[in-house]
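Sanity check record (used in CI):
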Amino acid sequence: MTIKRYGAEGGQGTGGQHLPFSRAVEAGGWLRVSGQTPMRDGEVVEGGIIEQSRIAIENCTLIMAEAGYGLADVTHVTVVLTDARYFQSFNKVFKEVFGEHPPARICMVADLVVDCKVEVDVTCYKAP
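Expected output for Reactive intermediate/imine deaminase:
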């Protein structure tokens, strides 16, 4: 089995910090996308939980598309929120994105990097 790494050179985080991990890793039909925050061009996009949720999920889908995967291939999503009160608002965005065929999911509350209200990672599968 071959392992393919997307963005293994690492990305850029806030303040120009080098991020020392791959954006995604693919093996045996599985794609694991690293946790995505509401960042564009290395900076957190300010906004409420709805806007930040859309951007974090969009960042995941852009990486998935780069690897040849789509929303129908998502089997599991991990969500980290900084406040339990964001749960219902995040669910609205989640339903907009995944519709009537949602993947399995875990949602938890924890501290995140400054100004991030949400982080999302996805696991996808396509038969090799």
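The domain at 3-125 is CATH 3.30.1330.40 (60s Ribosomal Protein L30; Chain: A;). If this sentence no longer matches the regenerated tokens, the check is flagged for review.
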